[in-house]
Amino acid sequence: MMRTTFLVVACVVLASISPSFVSSSVAQNYDEAAAKQRQSRKTPPLSNRVYKHLSAAMKLSDRGDYNGAMDLFAPLGKMELNAYEAAQFWRFNGFLFFSMTNYPAALVAYEKVLEQPNLPASMEDQTLLTLAQLAFITEDYNKTIDYVFRFLAVNQKAPANILALVGHAYVALEEFDKALQYMEKAKDGYIGEKKVMQPWAYKQLMYLYYRADQKYKVLMAQNDFMEATPSREGWTSLAKICTKLIEEHTDAAPLSIAELEKTREDAMNKAATPTIHRQYEYSGTNKPVEYVSPVYPREALVAGKGGEVKLLYDVSKAGNVVNIKVLFSSDPIFEPAARAALESYKFNPKRLTNGGASASGTGGLLGSAQIIMPTEEKPKSLLENPLKFIHSDSEAVSDRKNFEKTFTFSVDIWEKEKPVQEK
Q1: pLDDT by residue (tens digit) across 161-188?
Q2: C-alpha distances in angstroms, 184 versus 64, 202, 214?
Q3: Residue 40 class from Cβ within 10 Å (0-12 exposed, 13-18 middle, 19+ buried)?
Q4: Spacing of C-alpha 68 from chain mean position
Q5: Which residues contact 419 (CB under 8 A, 6 or more apart)?
Q6: Which of 204, 246, 282, 329 has the highest local Cβ count within 10 Å?
């Protein structure tokens, strides 16, 4: 998808992002002599007995029998091993501990790998990057950065996802200038690797731009994010950013009001395309298994107007929403959008509770809490994000009737909040 020409021009105007993939501080960390010395290392061979133990243990681990694999592999630790065999022993132990989510033990095992002399350069590199990620999972953010710097001491650049991990570690340490530096490097790295930047990394970058009061860079990053992973919520957020920038516009702004209005119009047109959300796994009850998020009314968005609509509805035996009634509306302009969104809800009738079960909260187009994570499996921090789209219910259930749903529409995207680390 080609971006609008003036946005490309604006990216040039705003280009304070360093053009080189590796920052000057990282480049100074690179030790060319040490990097060359690694290439001359002589690695001893892997003996047949070690290979047989490793092969048998790997078959067990492939079947998910990690304890069995560890029992089978453990006797090798009592044998006399050469440096390469010892490295393989500890690396496989690290993998098993990681697979069993024993991250501290995995860290110790992978550190033992690095203690072995004459490691192949590729094994050393993989171990350092693995340790960086393990340190992040265990919330030792200084160690995360240290392991990556050790990697960069013998490599001239790091993978984009690792640079993003460093940026995220600096956010956790509240060193936001360094965090922004590395998230920008990560963005350049993803482009160089011809890969799509992960959503959590885009959101982290936008948060850092926002925190640094670089609002036009938030706009550019949101535009890039939507070109990579388009959604109704994301295009709506882009339109809201434009509305706020129009309200705050000055002669020194890199984009004119006309350009911002055109960007907003394009975003609102793209936001009109529904994004179907399917949620098949819920820990709770009374949640839709499918829904379409509401369209922010165009007139309200252009006017910078927010509002709230509270609806009463029933759920049919087929799981469809019926008998919708408006209980409260701050402005009639929001009612059609709220009603249309609620009509898209599909429920699993078997998951609906009876007898007054309830869940409290508000739903809407903007909120504050946003989980930012480097991996899908292990979210480690809770970051306040002004561009977050939230969707939750406020319902009181009785015999599948008289459910309540509140939609909150808000254009307040510049409210600054300090990141909160999940404990």
Answers
A1: 999 999 999 999 999 999 999 999 999 9
A2: 39, 10, 13
A3: exposed
A4: 35
A5: 171, 172, 174, 207, 381, 382, 383, 384
A6: 204
Quickly count: other Cβ atoms within 10 Å of residue 104's Cβ.
12
114: buried, middle or exposed (CB in 10 Å: 19+, 13-18, 0-12)? middle
What is the token pair recorded at 33? Answer: 């002599």
DSSP string of 68-116?
HHHHHHGGGGGS---HHHHHHHHHHHHHHHHHTT-HHHHHHHHHHHHTS
Could you name the CATH architecture of 16-187? Alpha Horseshoe (1.25)
Which two tokens mark 238? 């882009």
pLDDT confidence band for 419 (50 / 70 / 90): very low
DSSP string, 374-409: SSSS---EEEE-TT-------EE-BTTB-EEEEEEE
3.30.2420.10, 3.90.76.10, 2.60.120.40, 3.40.630.10: which CATH number matches 279-409? Answer: 3.30.2420.10
Mode of pairing for the β-strands spanning 381-384 and 369-372: antiparallel
Q: Look at residue 115 and tell me whether its pLDDT is greater than 90.
A: yes
Residue pLDDT, tens place only, 35-46: 777 777 888 888
- For 118, 146, 169, 172, 200, the CA distances from 141, given in Å and listed in that order, are 28, 9, 5, 7, 17
Task: Please give the Cα distance from 230 to 213 (Å, whole number).
Answer: 25
Exposed/middle/buried for residue 75 (C-beta within 10 Å: 0-12, 13-18, 19+): exposed
Residue 33 CA to residue 35 CA, distance in Å, equals: 5
Neighbours of 272 (CB within 10 A): 11
Which sequence spans correspond to the domains of the chain? 16-187, 279-409
Contact 312, 325 (CB under 8 A): yes
CA distance 14 to 178: 19
pLDDT value of residue 293 = 85
